[in-house]
Amino acid sequence: MPLRPRPFRSVRPEPGILEEEAPKTPVPEQDWPRVRADDLVTLVAHVFAAHGLPEVRARIAAEALCHGDLTGSPETGVAELARVHLPLLKNGLVVPHAKPLMIADRGAAALIDYRRAPGLWAVGDAVDRAVTRAGRFGVGLVSMRGVELFGRASHHAARALPHAMIGLVLAAGGEPGRPVNPLGMAAPGGAYPEFVFDLDRPGAEAAGLTLLVEVLAGVLSGVADHEHDTGLLVLAIAPTTLRSVDGFSRAASALFGSMLGWQDDTPIRYPGWREAQHLEQCRALGVPLAGPVRRELDALAASLGLPPLTSVA
Fold it and tell me: How far apart are CA 216 and CA 265, in angstroms?
């Protein structure tokens, strides 16, 4: 996601809409050894393939899992590989070769049971299907169930961005004690970095939003009839089926440009800007990995007869 800096406007943001960048203080990641981004994704893909995922699924799953490390949220990245995802594959809760079952196909909308396929791949696959339908009908909707943990919803929603579309992923249900990331959205930013947003599970003060997600992602998919399952609503919208490309780009640029500014000598950015900046840095300088995570990955590489990750100077 290339950055396209523009002169900032001095504006006061609406509470809860924008994120303020923290003051510049040392963070642990600055001292962590770095590895090449593609090397990291490739190793994780090899690990998934060794646990039964077909090559294409393994690569998509690896990209989804490494998303946190590449965008500045390592707690949701490869640190969960050995702790969460590999045990699910080993104990059979995730079926690497599961073939999705099309339950209903209505053109612009479909209902699919992924039958315990890896969520890191399945949600991305559903977004791709929604994008294909949106290319034909202007909007594509996939209601899905039968998946385990899938990473950050916004990463999957962002698969719509290369097609100049808006992506939305809603999720409900999941295993007890394993809350899912209930909402992720991505939208083209015009002349600015794309808007990419994740909403953590809302609390009691957001009961209306909670019910909206439960109805659209849970009730619609039928996941309410299945214990320990996750239901999702995946939506892709092709805005240029309703208006011109230039018109949409100008409007998006005006919207996101108006949200940039300064407050108390602190730059204000919307969700997606910081992540895009971190992504560019990781691609250019390498991905920082904490010591324990690096040792886990090196051990997994050794178990597969692969060389360990090489640190970037």
Answer: 41
SS (H, E, C) 31-70: HCCEECHHHHHHHHHHHHHHCCCCHHHHHHHHHHHHHHHH
pLDDT (tens digit, 9 = 90+) per residue, 105-157?
999 999 999 999 999 999 999 999 999 999 999 999 999 999 989 999 999 99
Of the candidates 49, 73, 23, the one whose C-alpha atom is nearest the C-alpha of residue 288 is 73
**Quick check: 288 and 34 in contact, CB under 8 A?**
yes
Q: What 8-state DSSP symbol labels residue 234?
A: E
Tens-digit pLDDT profile for residues 181-209:
688 999 999 999 999 998 875 554 567 77
- Residue 42: CA atoms inside 13 Å, Cβ hemisphere, count? 10
How far does Cα 291 stand from its chain's mean position? 24
pTM over 0.70: yes
Q: Which letter does DSSP use for residue 9 in this model? A: P
Q: List the end-to-end C-alpha distance of the chain, in Å, as a whole number.
A: 24
Residue 57, number of CB atoms within 10 A of its CB: 23
| Mean pLDDT, residues 201-226 taken together | 74
Query: What is the rounded CA–CA span in Å between residue 79 and residue 280?
Result: 21
At 89, which helix (H) or strand (E)?
A: helix 86-90
- pLDDT score, position 200: 73
Task: Tell me the CB-side half-sphere exposure of residue 225, using CA atoms within 13 A.
Answer: 6
What pLDDT sits at residue 175? Answer: 65
Give alpha helix (H) positions in the chain. 37-50, 55-70, 86-90, 119-137, 153-157, 207-213, 245-258, 273-285, 291-303
Select from 103, 99, 143 the least CA-distant residue to 123. 143
The number of angstroms, rounded, from the C-alpha of 54 to the middle of its chain's C-alpha atoms is 21
Please choose, from the candidates 116, 129, 115, 136, the residue with its C-alpha nearest in 3D space to the C-alpha of residue 169.
Answer: 129
Report the C-alpha gap between 225 and 269 in whole angstroms: 41
